[in-house]
Write a structure and sequence with these properties.
Cystine Knot Cytokines, subunit B, 10 helices, 26% helix, alpha+beta, 3-stranded antiparallel sheet
Length: 399
Amino acid sequence: MRVSASRALVRLALPLPLLLLLALSSCPPPALGDTSGSAGAAAATTGAPAANPGNPGAGSEQQCSACESRHHSKLMRLQAIKAQILSKLRLKQAPNISREVIQQLLPKAPPLQQLLDQYDVLGDDNRDGLVEEDEEHAVTESIMVMATEPQALVQVDGEPRCCFFSFSPQLQPARVLRAQLWVHLRAAREPATVFLQISRLKPPAEGARHVHIRSLKIDVGADASSWQSIDVKQVLQVWLRQPETNWGIEINALDGGRNDLAVTSPGEGEEGLQPFMEVKMSEGPKRLRRDSGLDCDENSSESRCCRYPLTVDFEDFGWDWIIAPKRYKANYCSGECEYMHLQKYPHTHLVNKANPRGTAGPCCTPTKMSSINMLYFNRKEQITYGKIPSMVVDRCGCL
């Protein structure tokens, strides 16, 4: 008896890359010990139905079989997507971040809101005819790094309690296009002029504890809080070239009464107002998109290899750590590959002839894929915005 595709995958204990390749394909792997040349196998090779004389319900059975095949392809595609995302983000498992923690960490700031508004307006059809060249891993476009407490070495009596920013060693100074420090100012009791000062922290043993970076004079109105952004690109590039100099910064925003209006250690009701750094990185090369090939829907009677719609809902995965999109159109491939495809893809034909114990013919599989943009929390609870390659099936074909 033929072992089902899912059981065969488990028993064979295939490595992840091969598992993903099989999962993206609508053709199941061969069952163990199945080397017979049955009529059913021959029908799978040619795409013709197996001979079944005297069975008036053969057409209905074939249609039902096609539905089951599509359902199997859909389930395998969903499993592959979960594994792909974790692999491309270099994660062994999904970050364990609860919804409550996410609500506390999400900054209520303009750059994040702009990204979320972009998803609300464009959804998961944000296609401009250009796609980035596929790569093995995600390509980061921007990252929002939340401020944390500096090391005790630069504190005196536990002060200052803010702000240290941690960056990945993979972040290259040359890729930084823009770096903005975002600071939220509390509302003043009356209209005032606030002096916003930013100083770089140093251990007392190295001399002066503070190195002045920037001063801004800001006019604020009464009973109106606001976000302020400061260009810190040069400071960040120094930190990236010389990580040992990154001890953090101190932020003060003093009004005429010497009241500090900068939210550096958020109190009750100030969740999401802590300082953060928004870093924009350069993008990679792009190329034009080509034709998407044959498309079908779930009610289609098409038996040939075709692209079918599939919407992935990350909330169904229980992945609250993905901020946006909450769902996207991934698509999947399913259908038969008739013998004529062997003439269109002669290389596949030669491979199959050289390996008669391999696949029974060309397989319906993605031949063109594109990336999606994603806003998510990484392992360090930093908000990252980037491209995840090869997540949308643009075209299906027989290979």
